[in-house]
Amino acid sequence: MEWDMASLWSYLRRSREPAQKFDTVGGAASYAYELTKRYPEFSLTRRGADTGTLRVDLSWRMRTELGGSSHRKLNAWRHPLELFKPAEIQGHTQGLANVDFDLGCLYELTNGTKGVVQPLGGLTGDFGDPPYIKLSGDDRFGTASGEQMYINLDNKDEIKRLLIFVYIYDGVAAFSRANVVITLVTSDGKHVEIGLTDPPDQAHSCAVVLIEHEADGALVARRQVKYTYGFQSEIDHLYGWGMSWARGRKAGRA
After folding, report:
1. For an engineered disulfide with 211, which of 40, 100, 147, 162 has Cβ 3.0 to 4.6 Å away?
2. Which CATH superfamily, name and number, covers 21-239?
3. What is the 3-state secondary structure (H, E, C) of 198-217?
């Protein structure tokens, strides 16, 4: 298929808009949404997605070089079709193996109970009982599956608020060296993506999305993407969870 320049740039402008788009998963059509600074909210209740299992996926790809993105944009002016080529992915080098992005969730239930679900300390949660959150998987190499968390929205009336966050347990502060994405997958197949954009150097943690009940009872997910240079305690302080923290390690590590 041949492209003239006017058609090409028109297509590129449309592709950058954060509007609703189609995605296909397992042969079934499903809607994909992106939460951005301009469009930061997604009402699970209004979209009919506040029951069943809400899956949270963490995935990432390491960038080949820190300046790769700028070089790619500059080159696109000379060769526009280069934009359609997939970004390079760094292989299993030392730089990749030394990065360990982890998925966690601060929770507050309607009865006042507060806590955290995370790999540290083996706090993997429970799906059928409070806190109705279960963490599964721990992938140090950023493959397609990444880490996954499951939230039981059939018990949503017992959930006041959830804050999903990502932190670097081991290795260098590498948010600025990776493309990190959190995806919420609803029980009816909707995909809600939140990219961890504009990371500062040396950031170790990022509060990604806050899910909470509105005054009218609606369950709403709101993009946060707020970075800290510390870990869970700083995220706690930022959102006023008021928990006590101590240094911990993952199960099976000295």
Report:
1. 162
2. sav2460 like domains (2.60.60.30)
3. CCCCCCCEEEEEEEEECCCC
Pairing of strands 191-195, 28-34: parallel
Q: Minimal CA–CA distance to 81: which of 14, 145, 2?
A: 2
Instruction: Compute the Cα dihedral for 195, 198, 202, 203 and give only its sign.
Output: negative
φ, ψ of residue 158 to 5 degrees: the values are -95, 0
Amino acid, single-letter form, for residue 229: Y
Measure the CA–CA gap between 204 and 199, rounded to whole angstroms. 10
Up-side HSE of residue 127: CA atoms within 13 Å toward CB? 12
Strands (E), 94-218: 100-109, 114-117, 125-126, 133-136, 147-152, 159-170, 178-185, 191-195, 205-213
Strand partners, 103: 166
Reading the chain (254 residues) residue by residue, the pLDDT tens digits are: 454 544 444 444 444 444 444 333 433 445 689 999 999 999 999 999 999 999 999 988 877 654 444 444 444 445 555 444 444 333 333 344 457 789 999 999 999 999 999 988 888 999 999 999 999 865 544 444 458 999 999 999 999 999 999 998 766 677 888 889 999 999 999 999 999 999 998 898 999 999 999 989 999 999 999 999 888 889 999 999 988 876 655 554 44
Per the CB < 8 A criterion, the answer to whether 235 and 165 are in contact is yes
**What are the two backbone dihedrals, phi and then psi, of residue 97, each rounded to the nearest 5 degrees?**
-65, -25
Supply angle C-alpha 87, 21, 148, rounded to 5: 65
β-pair type (159-170, 100-109): antiparallel
